[in-house]
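Q&A log
Question type: sequence-to-structure
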Amino acid sequence: MKRVCVFCGSAPGARPAYRIAAQALGAAIAERGLGLVYGGASVGLMGAVADAAMASGAQVIGVLPRGLETREIAHRGLTELRVVDTLHERKAQMTALSDAFIALPGGIGTLDELFETATWNYLGVHAKPYGALDVEGYWQPLLRMLDTMVEEGFLRPETRARLVVRTTPSAILDALLP
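Response status: OK
Response body:
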């Protein structure tokens, strides 16, 4: 395991706990000698996780689509910032660069990244572990929806079980790391 990809919002969210968790996760990744791959922004939870990882000594690679360079405010202080043409290229590069994936709170883009990672895992495109850091119950409504999908026969229980959910950075890293 060399790098962990973190999906999260380019906004800070409504609760201070989200930023605190992002900072703690960035620091925990660095403390384990791992690198961080993320969406490349300097703002919101993205900026918080990247800044904390770098402050703790981690290599940080950001991958940002050209069209979001100004909207998400590209982080120019990273170890490496890769600017790509499309969102699809962003997700493909983040997947190629990473050995595991963690979703912090975020919006529709975070959900897209998490579900594409899960879908690619399900289809055998990769066999990398993935999970969600459940900050103050943020992911509970989504987890209930996934459980409903299992109950209604649209999602296999073993596929649902692949999504690792923990409430602290150390616990999620422990669960995802070999």
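Response note: The helical segments are 16-31, 44-55, 87-97, 108-123, 140-151, 157-161, 169-176.
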